[in-house]
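Q: I'm writing up a methods section and want to include an example of the input and output format. Could you take the sequence below and give the corresponding predicted C-alpha cells, formatted cleanly so I can copy it straight into the document?
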Amino acid sequence: MSEIDRALEASSLRNPRARAFVQEWAEHVGAGRLEVISASDDARLTREALAAGEVVPVSGGRIYARSHPKDTARTEERTFVATADPADQGAYNNWRLSSEIKPRVMELMRNAAAGKTIYAIPYLMAPPGSPLDSWAAGLELTDSRVVALHMIRMTRVGPAYLDNLVDPDSFVRGVHVTGDLDNLGQGTPEDMRHFITVADERLILHFGSSYGGNALLAKIAHGLRQGSYDGWKSGRFLAEQFMLISIHDRETGQTRHICGGFPSASGKTNLAMMEPPAGLDDRYEVHFFGDDVIWLYVDEVSGRLMAFNAEAGVFGVARNSNPTTNPNAIEAISEGSAALFTNVAYNEITHDVWWEGLTPEPPVDLKGWRDWRGALIAERHAGEQRSDAAGVEWAHPNSRFTTALSNVPNISPDVELARGVPIDAIIFGGRVRDREPLIRAMRNLADGVYDGLTLGAEATAAAEGKEGLLRYDPMSLRPFMSFGEGDYAQHWLNVLGPLANPPVFAHVNWFRQRGGRYLWPGYGENLRPLLWLLDFAAGRVTGHETPVGTVPLAEELDLRGLTLAPEDLDELLSVDAARWRCEMEGRTAHLAQFERLPHEITAAHERAVRGFEG
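A: Here is the clean output for your methods example:
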C-alpha cells in the first residue's frame, strides 16, 4: 500500500469518487505525502506552519504570511475558462478550447509537487442543507499548507460535506500546484502560469501561484466561474460577485435584504460592513452577510428570490481599512480572531502589523519593521522610510486579511440559514466622478439587467494609465465570466422573469465630485439612499423620472444628523444629459461585443438613448 493509500485509509473521507480523484492527482503531481483536512486541523496546521517559517506570529494569536514578490495578486490575463463548445466564448471570459489547454496544464503539473505534502480539502460553498448543495460541494488538492489555512477561514471544511452527497460524484474537483515561482517567466511571452476552469467538466486546474484567488480554488474559480456556469446549465441559480446585507428597522420590526455588485475600488466591502450614521443609528441596524460571492435562486415554495453567502470568511483588502472607514472589519481581525494577514508590514519584535491607511502616518519607531518584501524599513534611504509613493509602500497595495465570518461583529444571525434570505433590492455601483446621481431606481427587470450589463467604474491613472476612462465591468463579474454575456443576460431574465414579487433595482454612486471634492460623505451615510430605495419599492416615495431611472426628490431622503450643502445635494440628485449622451455612445459599442444579446436588453438601451435625445 502506498503512502497516499495509507493516508486515505486513515482519513475520514469515505466518498469513493473523491478518494479516486485524490489518488489519481496525488500520483500525477508526484506527491510524497497526503493529509485530508478538516476545520479542526487549524491549530495543528498553524503550529506546523510557524515551525516551518511559512507564517510568523502576530500578536493576539494571529499569523502573517509573505508571498513571493512575483506572486501578489490575481492574474486575469493568465486565467481561462475552458469548455468543449466554442459557443461559450464571450467578450471577457478568456475562453479556450478544453481539448487544447487542459493537456498543456496537466503536463505542467506532472511531478510539479514531487515529494511534497498534498493537502486534500473537502469544502462546501453554501450553508449546509442548502437547495444548491449539489453544486456547492468541492475538493481542492493543494501543495501549500498556507492555502489550507486560508481555506479553513474562508470555507466550510470537512470530509462530511462530500460523504453526505446524494450523488457522490456531484462535487467540483480542483488541483492547485504552486510551481517554481522564481522561474515561471511571469509577465513574459514564456509565462508558464495557467489558472483554468474546465467548466463543462467541473474541473479546476491552477498552476503557478500560491496567492489569493489563484490558489484558493473555492473562492473565485468555484464560487464564481464554475458556479455561474453550473447555474446557467442547470437553469437554477445565479453566482455573483455581490455583497449582501440586511437592514432592520427597530420601529417597524421589518428586516429587508439588499445585494449588489461593485467593480474594484467602488466601496463594496465598506458598504457591506457599514454602521448606521448619526441620526439613524437609534432606529436601524445593518447586518453583514458577505461581500464577495453570493448565490441567488428562486425558492419553489415561496416564489421569492433568495440569496446566501457561499463563503464562510472574508478575504479583505487591508489598504485604507481603519476604525473610521470600516470599524467592523478592524474588529473582525483584532486579537483573538486568528486572522491571517498577507503582505502587510510586519514588526518582528512586537509582532504587530501595519498598512497604509490604518493610521494617518506610519509608526514613529522604525525598529523591527519590515516591509511586505521583508526588507527593514530602517535600512531604506531616509526619504523612503515614511513614504507611501508607488513602489516604496510598507504594505503591498493588494495586501490582505483573511478572517472567519464569525469574527465580524455585525454578522447577521441568519447567515447560515440553509434557504438563504429573501432579496428586496439589487443594486449596482461604480466609481464615477460625474454623470451618475447618488441613486437611481428601476422597477423593470430588463432595465435592471441592462444597468448591470453596462456597469462600470472610472480607471485611475495608476491602474489603467487612462485616468477617468470608464472600464465596463458587467454585473461586476467581468474577470469571472464563464460563458457569453448575451447568454448571461438571458439567464438573468430567465431566473428572475417568473417572480411574482421581483426585487427593485438601483444604481448608486458615492463618488460624485466637484473640483476634486467628494459631494457625498459615504461610509455609513450610504444607508440613507438605500432607505429611500426601500421606501420607493414600497410606494412610500415617488422620486422623479429620468431616462435611466427614478431619482429621489431632495425632501424624500432622510438626512437627520447629516449636514449637507443644498447645492451639493442638488448636484448629487441631478442627471447631466450631455454627459449621458456621451455615455450612451460608449454603451452602444460595449453592448455590440455581445453575441445573442436578448432583445429586451437592446430595447432597454434604445429607450435610454431616446430619452436623452433632443
